[in-house]
Amino acid sequence: MSSFFSKLLVTIARKKLEQENSSATIKNRQVIPLARQIKIEIKHAIKDYTSLLIGVFSAGFGLKGFLLPNRFIDGGATGISLLLDNFTEIDLSYLLILVNIPFLILAIKTFSTKFAIKSGITIALLALVVHYVDYPIITEDRLLIAVFGGFFLGLGIGLAMRGGSVIDGTEVLAIWLSKKLSITVGDVLLLINIIIFSFAAYVLSIEIALYAILTYLSAAKTVDFVVDGVEQYVGVTIISEKHQALKTMIVTKLKCACTIYAGKGGYGAHGESYEKDIIYTVVTRLELAKLHTEIDKIDEHAFIIMGLVKDTKGGMIKRKPLNKSKK
């Protein structure tokens, strides 16, 4: 199967090159790199659309299994759709599409046509799931509805973002307004949701609005976990004259990798610049306390800079045992 797939990729790559260069002779050294690129594109496409499908069914479960039967609402475009569902006879599946259409049009200008089409397909799939899939009603407890309805909806939104699209179009509006008004995306989203929740408090009840805020917070936190990762990383830069001992400690005791930069101090003890090595490593939050302890053992006056790392790929982040030579 693997051999057949490889031959198929080579054939596709060769035909693509022949179309682009009909007069030239195509050689294998041109075909193989293109076949690898096509393989990577297919691999990423499968991963993205798998995330999208799981996200759509998760969001559908949050809506039909928790929020919709109990007339709860959420923030963003989904919240607007749920709010309209309380006052109109239009099915929620249609409302999800109608409410998001302006945001998808804006996505073409803000991002790209490809992103807007992909997001449109994702929202249409969610509408189909909401319309045709019969999810069981899980509970009537309002606290559980708010927390777990928000959790499954946030899981769906986060997985959709992982797949390169959006289920809730208000994020597109927030990014566009942040560029126009020079305010943060978070501030715009907060303002939009304050308007939605205030309207819900006025036309429904204050109690429903408060539960809606809880649903939104649960969904937002879940999105953060899915997009940024449950295990948050911290990038640590260490500047010390005892850099060699610190490097050895990081590799042997923490069993983490590190990168050494050749640096130059700007102001020494006598007012002159001097050469020094700078250490950079990435650790989890749980390892941070131990790292500080070990650094203080070696150099209490080391200059440490820490910054939150949203995500990592490749390299050595997880603790791994070092290879020991056989005696």
Helix content: 55-70%
Stretches with pLDDT under 50, minimum 5 residues: 320-327
**Rough outline:** globular
Number of E strands: 4
Give me the side-by-side strand order of the main sheet: 2-3-1-4
Order of helices and strands: HHHHHHHHHEHEEHE
- Fraction in beta strands: 5-15%
End-to-end separation: 42 Å
Architecture overview:
By secondary structure, the protein is an alpha+beta fold. It has eleven helices and four strands, in the order H-H-H-H-H-H-H-H-H-E-H-E-E-H-E. It has helices spanning 2-20, 28-67, 76-85, 92-110, 113-132, 142-162, 170-181, 185-203, 206-228, 243-252, 285-298; strands at 233-239, 258-265, 274-284, 303-309. It has a four-stranded antiparallel sheet with strand order 2-3-1-4. Helix 3 (76-85) packs antiparallel against helix 4, helix 4 (92-110) packs parallel to helix 7 and helix 6 (142-162) runs parallel beside helix 9 (206-228). It is globular.
Topology:
Blueprint lengths: L1 H19 L7 H40 L8 H10 L6 H19 L2 H20 L9 H21 L7 H12 L3 H19 L2 H23 L4 E7 L3 H10 L5 E8 L8 E11 H14 L4 E7 L18
Antiparallel strand pairs: 1-3, 1-4, 2-3
Helix pairs in contact: 1-2, 2-5, 2-6, 3-4, 3-8, 4-5, 4-7, 6-9, 7-8, 8-9, 10-11
